[in-house]
Amino acid sequence: MRFTLPDGTPLQLPDDATGADAAAAIGPGLARAAVAVKLDGEVRDLARPLDGDDGEPLAVLTRRDPEALEVIRHDAAHVLATAVMELYPGVKISIGPPIEGGFYYDFEFPEGVSVSEADLERIEARMREHIAAGEPFVRTEVTVDEALERFRSEGQDYKVELIEDLVRDQGVETVSLYANGPFIDLCAGPHAPTTRGIKAFGLDSLAGAYWRGDSSRTMLTRIYGTAFFSKDELAEHYRRLEEARARDHRKLGRELGLFLFSELSPGSPFWLPAGTAVWNELTTLWREENGRRGYREVRTPILYDVELWKQSGHWHVYRDHMYFTDVEERAMGLKPMNCPAHVQIYKSERRSYRDLPIRYSEQGLVHRHEPSGTLHGLLRVRSITQDDAHVFCSEEQLEEEIVRCLDFGLDIYDLFGFAPRLELSTRPEKRVGSEEAWDRAEAVLKRTLVNRGLEYELNEGDGAFYGPKIDLHMTDSIGRSWQLGTVQLDYYMPERFGLEFTGADNAEHRPVMIHRALMGSFERFIGILIEHYAGEFPVWLAPVQAIVLPIADRHAAYASEVAERLRADGARVEVDARSESIGRRIREAELRKVPYMLIVGDREAEAGAVALREHGRGDAGTLGLDELAERLARERRERTPR
RNA sequence: GCCGACGUAGCUCAGCUGGUAGAGCACUUCACUCGUAAUGAAGGGGUCCCCGGUUCGAGUCCGGGCGUCGGCUCCA
Length: 642
Description:
Layout: E1 2-4, E2 10-12, H1 19-26, H2 28-33, E3 36-39, E4 42-44, E5 56-61, H3 66-87, E6 92-93, E7 98-99, E8 102-108, H4 120-132, E9 137-143, H5 144-153, H6 157-170, E10 174-180, E11 183-186, E12 200-210, E13 219-228, H7 231-246, H8 249-255, E14 259-260, E15 270-271, H9 273-292, E16 296-297, E17 303-305, H10 306-312, H11 314-318, E18 324-327, E19 330-334, H12 339-347, E20 358-367, E21 383-393, H13 398-415, E22 421-425, H14 435-451, E23 457-459, E24 469-475, E25 481-490, H15 492-496, E26 501-502, E27 508-509, E28 512-521, H16 522-533, E29 546-550, H17 556-567, E30 573-575, H18 582-591, E31 596-600, H19 602-607, E32 609-614, E33 618-624, H20 625-638
Parallel strand pairs: 1-5, 16-20, 22-23, 29-30, 29-31
Antiparallel strand pairs: 1-2, 3-4, 3-5, 6-8, 7-8, 8-13, 9-10, 10-11, 12-13, 14-15, 17-19, 18-19, 20-21, 21-28, 22-24, 24-25, 25-28, 26-27, 31-32, 32-33
Helix pairs in contact: 3-4, 5-6, 8-16, 13-14
The structure holds one RNA strand of 76 nucleotides.
């Protein structure tokens, strides 16, 4: 057999050679380090015979390859199942794949057995025994009937279902099983030669997870863990998680006094003075940028007659997520979206083609009844303030308007150094509007992305009920992805509301609507911002931009003078003249992450200057008051990044 | 919404098998008036999430509810 190694050199092997043979043929060191091989893109067991004769690409994977890490994590999942089956007789196993950062295995524990995080240690101990024993992973290929009989006799219903589906969907006649020690699992592989490849592992948490991700089916118990090639890497992994938790916006929100949550209104943040300062800076940015790009700002009510929601289609599709109330026996609902409101404004006058595109922007407050289990700090709330806008335009203007929206969004993200992931979401199952309209809408969005050369992910079936969308996603401190901005195309709402404009031909035409929120919502965007900056906002966003620290009581008057001078420019400046030591007041200002500390004593009062200390960087020398004011003003005006 | 865990002072947390609560920080007062990340001393502060039950007695045990956290599902 003939293969090509990653460096391009050919490798000739006898016909019955395995992956291990290939590694040995290259060198004894590699043979020892080998975890698996990658043949023509497929990762395979070392023990499996190779096949090929056309110079297929072949690579021997060692601990340096990310794919090898996946292999031992998958190994660890099997060892986890091994231990759980021994410790909990009668447990049913489902699946256990490697995932980003680790692995999991899903179990159905017997009636009455409950497992808690305290039990994880016991399971870990049993796993260690199996790893120390260095049990080989042995692959066998068996017929579907054999496999079914085995799992049926063991009462492993989930495995039986998996095999039946494989037969039905893929017409397989045989399946592969992997044995390690006493455990045999239905598994496509690959696995390392023995359990000893798992050099370091830990079980992390317990969670519920629906069988096959279907909320109408059994909820299984998922055990999460992780594994590495060394104890150091494992320790490093936990250290990084710890570090990530330190920038969690919920923790920083409390520590920095940005916002709070109350049991009296779950999912609705209370914005404290410091958080409101950040919010207001974003509002200013939002208003400036919208104005510059031809948007006109509007303000609309939050409570509407349910007739509006019936007409818009929200009543039928979105009712469960809305809040309703009766007002003098009239049924009314809080808006979950701003579009019907902006539609009312559009409809309030006759529109001409000369008016288009009409762009309305609003800091729109909407309420959505998000399920209790999904709330998450600022990132998933029930009262949502969108940086919303609706563009009403003609079919001919559509593509350009979409491009403008996307460019606008990307410009804003640029300002913060955000690199969002783009997703194109297409028609969902629960939808309104004709198939032709969906075809057109999806095609326009796709064309826009392709023409702009933007990379994107296709998210089939994830569109809004009225139209497809392009979303901008960002990742939070613990690696979870959140949708921020969205640009949505809508042929449906204009039809529902009978929107029209008079064309050059003096006939009535139907406009197209674009729904777009670029930051998404102020709540979520600020949540991501907090984590992005780890609470260390650039000067323009910082709740307190400078704090004046007089050395002794006799410097208090000069400290006030400094503060007044800077406040005259509109800067947010505090004076900390408490009779605490200067060391303590510096420490507290550092903990509050105030960008500039201005220390004033005899020398500074004398010279009309300040001793500047920058947050996280320390003493930055003495600066004249005017010079400082100028610097601060410039950084605020130009929105200088940190 | 579902699975599991958790809910004690403003915050972070301790409180063993039931005997009416404790630390550090924060806060208040006093003294210190200080040169780049914690001066010292004294003091105040708690419906132990809520409702019900068991018990002579519940922060502790049981049931229900609410909230939070980690997942799952969902996410216009």
